[in-house]
Amino acid sequence: MSVAKKRKIVDENRKYSEEWEEKHYETKHNDYLKFSSEVKQSKLREFTSQLKTQQKMFSSALQQPSNIVKASYSVSFLIAKKMKKFSDGEFVKECLEAVAKDILPDKNKLFSNISLSRQTVCRRINDISNEIIVKLRDRIQDFKYFSIAFDESTDISDTAQLVIFVRGVNESFQITEEMLKLISLKGTTKGEDIFHAVENNLDLEIISGISTDGAPAMVGKEKGAIKLLIDKIESTRKTNNFWKRDDLFIIHCLIHQQNLCSQVLSMNHVMQVVIETVNYIRSHALPHRQFKEFLKELDSEYGDVVYFSHVRWLSRGKCLKRFYELRHEIDLFMNDKQKPVLELSNDEWLLDLCFLVDIKKLLLFEFQLKNNNVQHFPLLNELKNSKHIDSIKYAQEIRKLIAAFESRFTNLDKYKKIFEVYSSPFHTDVNSAPEYLQMELIDLQCNNELKHIFETSKSKIDFYNINITKEHFPNLRNLAQKVVSAFGSTYTCESFFSKMKFAKDKSRTNLTDENLQHQLRCANTSISIDLKKLSERVEKQISH
Length: 544
Hints:
This protein is of the alpha/beta class.
């Protein structure tokens, strides 16, 4: 028969009695009864001091692993930012141990205890990424307005990756621009697929703008992702007297459109030669090294040509200009390689190259070229005395370019007044401004003190935050918050995909979509993370 357990005090609802403590003292510690009160007080202080010493010793013992864990997080964060392999952590640890052995031999064990295995680095990066997500969600909760930019590209394993960036502003005009999500589209990449991926990760109630490229899946009139998003916004957004449907900024990447406009020029014969020549020099290791050495020998102003790629459309202008400035050196080098560029000896081709480099202000250029004036074309102007320039031909090319710009950027006209009010509130025509802004604009333009502050202010954002209060100018303040929350291009996405191709190269084709997203989030974030607090939350143990 088992002995019944003794009931606890709490079970009998009994209160603690001081008599029990006295009885315990007399029974267990009767050796101290002979001491006087002063001696007992001295013993109490002695025991208390010993306890504090022991506690401090244990605290120090625990602090050491905490610092080691933080060091592991710090190195892992750097690996993520530089988009290096997780296994590089093991090499970094070897370097640390080698340095410690020579400089801090007595601390070598500390460096050896830092866990930087491939699995640990991966886990640390995922922890940091999740911490960024938590902080981003907190900021999103404070957004007054936000816009999104999204684009799709394929990685080295032919997986379609859709990236979504969010740019938001809170009531105090603090701007946050972060990667919201990287979504792997395993099946098709139709507009519906992109729409569902975007819609499931956003609160569309306060969205102010959408920016993307011009792919049919993005901008299709019936089933494009933007069309489906707009329909969803209209069906879910609550009644809002301030914003109308047409006020939602729908922007096809401005820089991308500029590049598309440039393709209407009949200058393919120039671009083809430049691209082939530059790509030959840059894409072959030996000719590239030889060309750079060749430029050094000639004491050239430049040390290399600028690489051109159709994907990297931002490089076009720099590539053309550098090619022209190195045309003599390129001619000598290519002849030496038995690959002569005959066009470099062709006057008409050289003039066309000069024209492409010189294009800057279209309407003025068109007018002056029609009158045989090449004053604002510095490269053409250099050659006008030695070569015949067909200025009418170039005027026609500029007319094509103007027509392309007018066609592609017409959709921005409906936002023109809003941007004018934001950028020049004291000079904009009140009668042409949106009606809901007119009364506030009149009050603002009559305030000479605010006008002086605006004209001397270094930052429009600071001006609107400090001086355009929601008590006196609620609509103007809302307008400013919406404008600063907008994306003007998908440059952020383009830059992201360049990093993605670097992070997931041919040596990392097995990198999972989840780990790729975590690493790229760390590489692109501007949110500060307290690694000390993060390290204190994990179990303080030394692994491998």
